[in-house]
Amino acid sequence: MAVAKALKEKVPLATAQPEVVIDPDREPIVVVDGLHIVYRVYSGGGNKGNAVSALMRIVKRQNRPQMKEVHAVKGVSFVAYRGDAIGVIGTNGSGKSTLLKAIAGLLPAAKGAVYTDGQPSLLGVNAALMRDLTGSRNIILGCLAMGLSPEETKAKYEEIVKFADLKPGFIDYPMSTYSSGMGARLRFAIAAARTHDVLLIDEALATGDAKFKRRSRAKINELRKDAGAVFLVAHNLDVIEETCNRVIWLDDGRIKMDGDPTEVLKAYTDATGK
What we know:
Rossmann fold
């Protein structure tokens, strides 16, 4: 990766924030360089009505929808290193999930860039599984989609079922019958079955009992040893503190603080009262 080589040779980021410090002794795996993400949304011009009436206004060029821009991420720069587990915190609307989607390559940059050494994988509460298929079939399809061979999938199957800890017999039921917690546990169990270059977890640990959360934290620590880096968005600050070696605090799309979990979490709690 050219960017990693440049960083190791102490070449500064082109648009880095002044507080970004590059460690020449560690291997960069994700570089976010002056990243801006802008959403373009359309409003109905303030008029109420159903979809048909809105369409007729558009056709007649009356009260055409107005485009508005939402600047969700504003000039964010940082370097993540191999072995990092980074918690991303902030109030609702601060840009946390948007940042993860951008790192995963799901959102285009309006300005700046994201570089990754390897393939990022985004795991969210709404990560796609086939609702009409059984949990068992989803495990097989999910593993194959992640690049595991049929033999590797077969070898991992029982481990995934055990980790997800579903109610007895539910592994053979359609996913449509699962609670949100059961679905989240199965998604995490499938994603954790292989080593990821960069694993992005968005609120996937928010659902589940204390036992599952403990297992999830242990699994993330495992992944950190074997994988590249782990990013975790969670409103539960205890999960962040126990799981991550670094925390990035986003505020209104900008990095407010980036550093040691204890220091960042204390500053965040003092500022927000959460």
